[in-house]
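Recap quiz, item 2
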Amino acid sequence: MQDEAKELIRNFDWVPGSKIVYNIVDYIAGWARKYSIWPIHFVTGCCSPEFMQTSGSEYDMERLGVLPFASVRQCDCIMVVGVVSRKMALRVKYLYEQMGEPKYVVSVGACPTGKGPFYDSYAVVAVDEYVPVDVYIPGCPPRPEAIIHGMMLLQEKIKKERRIGVRNA
Amino acid sequence: MTEPVIEPDIMRISWGPQHPMSGQTRIIIDVDGEKVHRIIADLGFTHRGIEKILEKRTFLQGIIPMERMVMADTPNIGLGYVMAVEEVLGIEVPERANWIRSLLCEMARINSHLYAFGLQAESTGYFPAVFLWTTIDRAVILDLFEELTGARWSLNFFMPGGVHNNLPEGFEDKVVKGAQYLRKRFEDYWEAMVENAVFEMRCNDVAVLKPEDAIRLGATGPVLRGSGVAMDVRKDEPYAAYADIDFEVVTESACDVMARTKVRYREIVQSLNMMEQIACEMPKGPIRKKVPLFARSKAGEALSRVETARGELGVHMFTDGGMNPYRVKINSPTLRNMYVFERLAELDELLVADVPVVINSIDPWYLDSDR
Amino acid sequence: MVSETPEEAFVESIKATYPDAIISAEVLRPKRVSVVVKRDHFLEIAKSLKDEFGFTHPVSGGALDYPRENRMRMIYYLMNPESRFMLTYGVDLSRDDLKLSSMTSVWEAISFHEREAHEMFGISFEGHPNMVPLLLPPDWKGGHPLRKDFKGEGVEE
């Protein structure tokens, strides 16, 4: 999708005023998209109770627009919450491939980032060997404020995107 | 996993790790129309190799990976490991430390049972309201944990020889106030869940597990006590301060899903009474006995049993004179209950829509069965 | 006469019933009894533990690896619902011949634990109804992880 978007930019660059139109469209699209990140309802390990507390009543993640949703095709983010074992890493990859573009990956916790307290285990993998990760949230388990901060960093990243989905253009 | 061949006229549903209600496991349900023909549990999605890791850590370092077995109930799990270490090293714990351990264990039991309630409400009628109530009520306990230990879930507060720190000023009053607040909220839970017509229709006489079957199949925890068998490690082999606290073992005779929910509810009420009793009667004294940082043990073995919220946890530790244990065998409660869950399809007639209700009445925590 | 605890009564009676098949039967501390038997009489004593001595509640099963003595030990954890003490029932196997008859014919709930012992240590249980890997991934091509000489095989990058 990134190649098609770049094609589009190149084809219409000669039109005077196209850049201003694109900037306005990007701004509105970025604002709309960053406030409705829908992650897949998928927990892989022991950080799950902290994730559920964060989307609960006290630290409400839904006021940022983050709604865990069950259907994979309609989500745009996969939050890998907790330890990823070898058997589960394959499922993470399948889910990542099933999502529609543009898509993001957030690695919540110390374990998917770099194996956490199980650093010398034969059965644990770091999730960025399987999918490309956008935001890493450290902690064991991370505090709810840290998870919300991580989602806000993802929102910043989405806001900076140009031409919907082209990163770092 | 090499699955058995699908029989003719049977449809196979793979209820997999990505599903809002399945947890971190895959349950294969063979159905014939609406009736469940067979259930196969595919475990191992959260296997971390904790038993192998514990062989590479010293006795004190081993508490960290061990506690991450069940995140909602870490004091009980940590206590199982610490008691085994103390038996191997031959350490006796002062009395006040035992009372503080019991206090934290009971608070964690309430935390874990509330989590189970929330999941059961979500699976029965999609009552997300009850799930969100439990997040607020658990916040009371998590704030108390944070004030005492600095962490919300994985406390790491017990160590061989006692506990890390003494209770701060005024902590006992906060515990009593928290218990009184939770007690008022529980009347709402009883009305919303147990006396609710929808809940009764979905839970009465579903998945009946008779007492002989429960014993024969190795059930443990509220699953066993919901079938009328009064086995609780806190009464059979009192550890920590349970010999001095009065409480009763809660059993129900109806043996179905509703009985297990009522057992958890009444256990929460018992734990609230225990919290208040411990906060008022805590003895004074030292909280820790000094143990060298890199302690060496003699060759031997020790088996400790602890009643966690889901059942009985056993930690069998073998040592050979080094600084690390030689082998740690963990007897996990959820692995025993998952076998009971697989056999429930044969013992009682289940429909497909009953399967989430039944599995949340067993209250599994898959990180515990996969270790 | 000093009254016997149920643990001591059990140890006396099992030693009297099978005097030559038992390698050791002792009370380690209150509520913990450990029995180690010879391999040939393993199944028969297990059946009598269930039928005559009342150990109907299976708890768990696991194994241990002693490479320097060239043996492994398989332990079953059992409980009697009346007397409420924990029995660890063990048998020694030589590392060159890791075969044992499955206990699922006596206590069917031991099935999961034997599957785990098989994939973690390599002990094969004869007569097990469903010997598939329990915890490791189905395409695991490595060794047996909980053995002492496991060097990380099967962990490909």
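The first strand of chain A starts at residue 77 and ends at 81.
Residues 56 and 62 of chain A are 9 Å apart (CA to CA).
End of item.
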